[in-house]
């Protein structure tokens, strides 16, 4: 599958930053109250330590007249609007004035020529499906649109992690995960496509939950548990605004309505029963433990890569850490674990992914070989802006810890 010119450079930019240690996602819609505002070509999320996260956006233009000055101003405005730490423009313009202007605006300039030299002609998509191929793979299920619109489910989860606060984003992504986990169990003939959607949604949920934990890094375990429980249950921004609003309404009912105290108590009991049904304790019990939450970022990177894996064995061969987290998420949404992790899927029927021979064109943009289709290693070169190198590395100390593969659940 030959990629459009711009898509090829986007894939190359995504691969470059993935090898710098970021979780890199292509084509993310920015929404406000369910209205699309704009989109980001590549979204970057990185973790340097327990309480340090990096968010960046990359604007990619592969044109003869890229209008680099305009793109620099646009991406700078987007950086401020979204509260990103860094902004990057990937362009074909190599004018030294453009580079100086980008530095003045605190924007990193990354040229297409640099990326292609870094890539050195290797095949970027040997083991990985591009975004266009992934969408085509899902669309090979003719009824995907009538069956809940699978492409839209993924797009909504991707948009949530950029447009919403961490807890609402987690809840949005986990709804997408539930959708695909149920399809993986009930649509065996389309299980490959369902697994890709489930793993990508789970990766986004892990990213959102890791972002929520950024503010809880130095809390005591008991406090971290309670805050996680409340955030997942009420889906607010972690500021208890939803709980306070509920308490305010119940207080008004109690004092301003005839028999208000009885009505308020009955309403409170009904709400409590509803929120208990969320089963947020499963998430809080597991991820309040630092040895478990420390794996969220690395597992998110792995699951994103699994979702794009070209070969079926690479799609389902999860690590122990990823199996543990997928198991917890499955228990949280009430999904069946075997449908998500059974290796029988690999040999049960032929793979429906696109032929490898038809998918390697990147319009002169491709990336170095990786020793594994899952773990993308760091490159030796990183683009620099006014604020220094742009890179993200997983937390080494958390990777060295053991994770509990059989957590106790509520």
In whole angstroms, the N-to-C terminal distance is 47 Å
* Total individual domains: 1
Indicate the radius of gyration in whole angstroms.
22 Å
In spatial order, strands of the major sheet run 1-2-3-4-5
Low-pLDDT windows of residues: 349-361, 363-382, 394-410
Based on DSSP secondary structure assignment, what is the total number of beta strands? 7
How do the SSEs run, as a string of H and E?
HEEEHEHEHHHHHHHHHHHHHHHEEH
The whole-number mean of residue pLDDT values reads: 82
Question: What does it look like?
Answer:
The radius of gyration is 22 Å and the shape is globular. The chain has one domain (5-219, 285-399). The chain is built from 19 helices and seven strands. The chain is α/β, with parallel strands linked by helices. The protein has a five-stranded mixed sheet, with helices on both faces. Strands 6-7 form a two-stranded antiparallel sheet. The chain has helices spanning 5-18, 68-82, 96-104, 112-119, 131-139, 150-163, 166-186, 191-213, 221-234, 241-256, 260-276, 280-287, 290-293, 296-307, 312-316, 320-333, 337-341, 344-348, 396-399, and strands spanning 23-32, 35-49, 52-60, 86-91, 108-111, 384-385, 388-389. The longest helix is centred in the middle third of the chain and has 23 residues, at 191-213. Helix 12 packs antiparallel against helix 16.
Structure characteristics:
single chain, 410 residues, alpha/beta, 5-stranded mixed β-sheet, 19 helices, 7 strands, 12% strand, globular, disordered C terminus
